[in-house]
Amino acid sequence: MKKNTYSLLATLILSALYGTVHSSAAQADLRQQCLLGVPHFSGTPVSGNPNDLPVYIEANRGEMLHATEATYQGDVDIQQGNRRLQSQYAKITTQDNAGQLTRFAYIDGDLQYRDEQIDLKGSNAKINLNSKDSDLQNADYQFVGRQGRGTAQQAEMRERYRTLHNATFTSCLPNDNAWSIEADEIRQDLQEEVAEMWGARFKVLGVPILYSPYWQLPLGDRRRSGLLMPQFSMSSRDGFSYAQPIYWNIAPNYDATFTPKMMTDRGLQLLTEFRYLTQFGLGTVATEYLHRDRLKTYLGNNKSRHLFFWQHAATFGDWRLNVDYTKVSDKRYFNDFSSEYGNSTDGYATQKFSLGYYQPNYNLVISGRQFQIFDEAEIGPYRALPQIDFNYYKNGLANGWLDFALFSQAVHFDNDSSSMPKAWRFHVQPELNLPLSNDYGSLNLQTKLYATHYRQTSGKGENAEAVQSSVNRVLPQFKADLQTILLNSKSVFEGYTQTLEPHVQYLYRPYKNQSNIGAQNVDSNYLGLGYDSALLQQDYFSLFRDRRYSGLDRIASANQVTVGGTTRFFDQHSEERFNFSLGQIYYLTASRIDESEDNSTSRHSSSWSMQSNWKINSDWNWRGSYQYDTVLNKTALANTVLEFNPSGNNLVQLNYRYASQDYINQNLQSGANSYNQDIKQIGATVAWDIDDNWAIIGRYYHDVALNKPVEQYGGIQYNSCCWSVGIGARRYLTSSNRSDTADQVFYDNSVAINFEIRGLGSNYSSGLRSMLQKGMLPYVKPFSLE
């Protein structure tokens, strides 16, 4: 658990912007560039207590007054281990304190002191050579091996603490006065890596900006309670926003962040996040709350808007507990708020838990699951509570020939609508596998039995549909899966090795009418296929799945042969550079789940599915997939991505996505509204570290069918050794909840500014990665060849 923290001073860094951009050190990243400007320890590390080491003194002239006092003049050089003190005059005394001899060095005039932690200049010092305690005047110090420097009228240096009076501090390199702190007193805690300041004045380019009687500034990467960097933004939806995170380092295994966020057009929102790591597991609990939302397009009767999020994972020996729970106040929440815990493009929020007991050959899991959907369906999906799963695996039966597996489940389905039936489903699914393989390929013969019993209860509502109270369904299945790999060391491309990987599968499962499972005449996008089933999207790999539908309520008949294959090309270093997969299902008889033609394949073959990856070189990657519908005689689905990624975070990505209107409508679930247009979307993302200081990002997504941009985002980040600033502008398509504008689209325009003080920890990143993850459509790396 780690959180970088910075003081309120970061809010003022905007004033430090100036016209000259620091030049980059040749062939050095920002971290190297910054560390070139600080002193480095070049001696040999000392083991043990350095105070026990002997003291060596060199000078042009020395005079021993008596056994306990000596004076040195001219190029005085005093060394003890890694400590070195240089001056023109020094007096060394030895004092006997109850039998303990203590050596002191008194310096008159200018001095220079170095050790593995600090490099300073000063005058008139008193130094305890036994303990390293020192007092000196007019100090000018700089940290060794890391950023941090300043001055002090008087300095008191102890083993753990350094106290500076009438002092200054900055993480900027010498000759860079972008910002600094002046304080009546600064105390640095070397152990806790923190500086406390009293009577502090924050200056930008030497101009006082802010005063505080007390400040605390972290000097490392340790978690520290205090104010985090504030966030500013301007949005046509929110107005001007100011968010001030407050971090509380409760304990090494607990922390919390409280963020009041003021939006001028909407009100005050409070965001909280609590993180924990205990013997009972690790997790995060977060809330977001706005008491009265003044957003004009929000017409909810309850103006309060809120979110609750809880994620937990724990392992207790053989037991595992997982919780993933997100609940929002209304369906428009993720349209109207930017949140780390959900996105409007998801379409739903998940609420689930599971408790499982795991052994090498079996596991038992008790769980519950429901979804909060965000569209306007009158009847939502079923919740599964409770759900009990038992799985058993045993390989090597019959003298090592057979593998056995058993999947069993008992689950209760319930729905918020009184018109919908409720049900218990009991399912047992044993299977036997006979895997055969040699150097040329593999053949897997599998037999499986689906045995399911339903106890159904009709809904109590006025228009509730009657259902059969008891339903039994038993379906056997047989599958033969043949794969082989043919190697051609002399491919069509010189210098490459090619493989041909044919894949043929036969699947048989008899037909049984399943219209008596669940409600049938339901006007909902989420129902009509039983309690938890949905049509699976087709791609090359889905061609070889056992079932057309997810869930167990709709198991279609099958008498089909799937033919496909993949070819791969490997270079001289055995690195895969290109692959291409092609496949299709041939239906020997139509695949059905009931007597309705809408739920039958009613064709002799499936769409052709193609998929390909191409690693053009170390910088360029391409991926594409394509489906051709043999019934519609047209393209059903297509997408392609081309990315240039030469190094680090730098990338340019172009992508295109297409889905035909006819394909969408013929695959919609029962009750779903028809789609009235093709989906055609193009997009581009550019992210680039221009040099060690400047980084830019741009993102543009356009809906060709609507002829409107979906999202536009542009950001620029400037990073120096001691501060950074990022500015991002975003415009994205949203919707209105007003009935009189249902056919219109709206855009939200926003500008956000983020500041950061740097040089206090180890963060020298350009900020590109965090900017790439923002927005409706965050960057995704889609390639399987890397």
TrEMBL record:
<comment type="similarity">
    <text>Belongs to the LptD family.</text>
</comment>
<keyword id="KW-0998">Cell outer membrane</keyword>
<dbReference type="Pfam" id="PF03968">
    <property type="entry name" value="LptD_N"/>
</dbReference>
<dbReference type="InterPro" id="IPR020889">
    <property type="entry name" value="LipoPS_assembly_LptD"/>
</dbReference>
<feature type="signal peptide">
    <location>
        <begin position="1"/>
        <end position="28"/>
    </location>
</feature>
<protein>
    <recommendedName>
        <fullName>LPS-assembly protein LptD</fullName>
    </recommendedName>
</protein>
<keyword id="KW-0732">Signal</keyword>
<comment type="subunit">
    <text>Component of the lipopolysaccharide transport and assembly complex. Interacts with LptE and LptA.</text>
</comment>
<comment type="function">
    <text>Together with LptE, is involved in the assembly of lipopolysaccharide (LPS) at the surface of the outer membrane.</text>
</comment>
<dbReference type="InterPro" id="IPR005653">
    <property type="entry name" value="OstA-like_N"/>
</dbReference>
<feature type="domain" description="Organic solvent tolerance-like N-terminal">
    <location>
        <begin position="56"/>
        <end position="193"/>
    </location>
</feature>
<dbReference type="InterPro" id="IPR050218">
    <property type="entry name" value="LptD"/>
</dbReference>
<feature type="domain" description="LptD C-terminal">
    <location>
        <begin position="303"/>
        <end position="694"/>
    </location>
</feature>
<keyword id="KW-0472">Membrane</keyword>
<dbReference type="InterPro" id="IPR007543">
    <property type="entry name" value="LptD_C"/>
</dbReference>
<dbReference type="Pfam" id="PF04453">
    <property type="entry name" value="LptD"/>
</dbReference>
